[in-house]
């Protein structure tokens, strides 16, 4: 059996780095066909030398940098604008989407239309165009195995189960960096304060989304499409220990949960090896050291972004695309210090309230709606 050919989009981010660590452990099972990075060309150089991919994609300044350094002799160099070229290679079996934001939509769509296994660590593409991506995946025989720990947990809990017997999904959340911070203190929080996540080491944007709980709202919409389940059957549950990664309840009252150490290499390895399971170098979960496992309802007054996301998810259509685009713009502005933490929600809500819904948007309408939402968010900024 030949090694599984893998493309890692976002290879220099935390998910991409951990994906390569997992693949490095099983060199006879995986072959790195392509890598992409946005700006971290220094790390990308090291990855090229170590994994010898056929192609790499990088932002325009990085293309020239790699060419000056002579890397064209050992790898084909593309601009990130042409990243879909590496996905269509016949040698590619699996595409890891470790890039954040709406830019993942085109590669995701290309991957499913080429019948690949897609391992998304990206919520935004499914939020924007879940109805299109899932329909195309079914049409072209693509398999989607999520990497996000919560979606991976649900995916694992549902394996071999009758979908008709599903009663409820519990999406767990650690509560983020502000779980124990009083609402009255939010105005005084700095960007540095927000980026201190108690459990996960993640990129800046997703860490901010974790602080607002917008990430859970996006995951609710993602789960709707991945598992073909109504929004009202998806509940968010605060679980500070982050040991239970999500749970599924069935019609007879039985609940199946997926537990594991707090390490992204666990769901990454499962996505890469699915449907097999291989030995992991991670330490086993020690139940005798766990102490207690706590659960709480999310505070929607303290975290109104989650309530807005549920409203948007229920209304559907083009609203999720608007929510996502406005949130990306607002978070980027917050990270630049343009306003305080409360400003993120205010801007997103304003843009959402201005939108006139398109019930079942085409791909062209999704891109048009996204551009409109970004322009509106910038106008409010």
Describe the protein in words.
There is one protein chain. By secondary structure, this protein is of the alpha/beta class. The protein has 3 domains: 4-144, 3-Layer(aba) Sandwich (Rossmann fold), CATH 3.40.50; 149-311, no CATH class; 316-381, Orthogonal Bundle (Rna Polymerase Sigma Factor, Chain: A), CATH 1.10.1740.10. The protein is built from 16 helices and 11 strands. It has helices at 14-25, 41-51, 60-68, 84-87, 105-113, 124-140, 149-158, 191-194, 204-212, 214-226, 265-273, 287-290, 304-315, 319-335, 342-354, 363-380, and strands at 4-9, 30-36, 55-58, 76-79, 94-97, 117-120, 143-144, 166-173, 234-238, 244-250, 255-259. The strands form 2 sheets. The chain has a 7-stranded parallel β-sheet with strand order 4-3-2-1-5-6-7, sandwiched between helices. Strand 6 (117-120), helix 6 (124-140) and strand 7 (143-144) form a beta-alpha-beta unit. The model has no long low-confidence stretch (mean pLDDT 95).
């Amino acid at each position: 059996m030949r090694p599984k050919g893998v493309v890692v989009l976002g290879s220099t981010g935390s998910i991409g780095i951990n994906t390569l660590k997992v693949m490095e452990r099983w060199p006879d099972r995986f072959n790195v066909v392509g890598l992409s990075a946005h700006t971290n060309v220094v790390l990308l150089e090291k990855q090229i030398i170590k994994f010898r991919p056929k192609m790499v994609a990088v932002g325009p300044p990085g293309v020239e940098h790699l060419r000056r350094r002579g890397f064209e002799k050992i790898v084909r160099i593309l601009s990130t604008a042409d990243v879909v070229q590496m996905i269509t290679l016949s040698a590619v079996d699996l595409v890891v989407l470790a890039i954040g934001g709406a830019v993942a939509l085109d590669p995701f769509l290309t991957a499913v239309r080429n019948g690949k296994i897609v391992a998304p660590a990206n919520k935004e593409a499914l939020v924007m165009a879940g109805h299109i991506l899932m329909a195309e995946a079914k049409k072209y025989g693509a398999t989607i195995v999520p990497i996000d720990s919560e979606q991976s947990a649900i995916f694992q809990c549902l394996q071999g189960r009758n979908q008709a017997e599903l009663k409820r999904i519990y999406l767990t959340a650690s509560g983020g960096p502000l779980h124990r911070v009083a609402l009255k203190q939010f105005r005084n929080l700095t960007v540095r304060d927000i980026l201190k996540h108690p459990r996960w080491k993640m990129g800046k944007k997703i860490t901010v989304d974790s602080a607002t709980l917008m990430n859970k709202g996006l995951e609710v919409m993602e789960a709707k499409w991945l598992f073909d389940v109504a929004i009202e059957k998806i509940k968010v549950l605060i679980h500070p220990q982050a040991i239970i990664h999500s749970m599924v309840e069935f019609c007879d009252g039985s609940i199946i949960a997926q537990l594991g150490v707090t390490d992204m290499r666990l769901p990454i390895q499962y996505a890469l090896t699915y449907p097999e399971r291989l030995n992991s170098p991670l330490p086993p979960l020690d139940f005798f050291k766990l102490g207690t496992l706590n659960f709480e309802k999310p505070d929607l007054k303290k975290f109104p972004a989650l309530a807005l996301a549920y409203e948007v998810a229920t209304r559907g259509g083009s609203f999720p695309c608007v929510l996502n685009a406005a949130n990306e713009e607002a978070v980027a502005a917050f990270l630049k210090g343009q306003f305080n933490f409360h400003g993120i929600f205010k801007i997103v809500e304003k843009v959402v309230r201005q939108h006139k819904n398109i019930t079942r948007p085409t791909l062209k309408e999704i891109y048009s709606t996204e551009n409109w939402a970004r322009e509106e968010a910038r106008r409010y900024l």
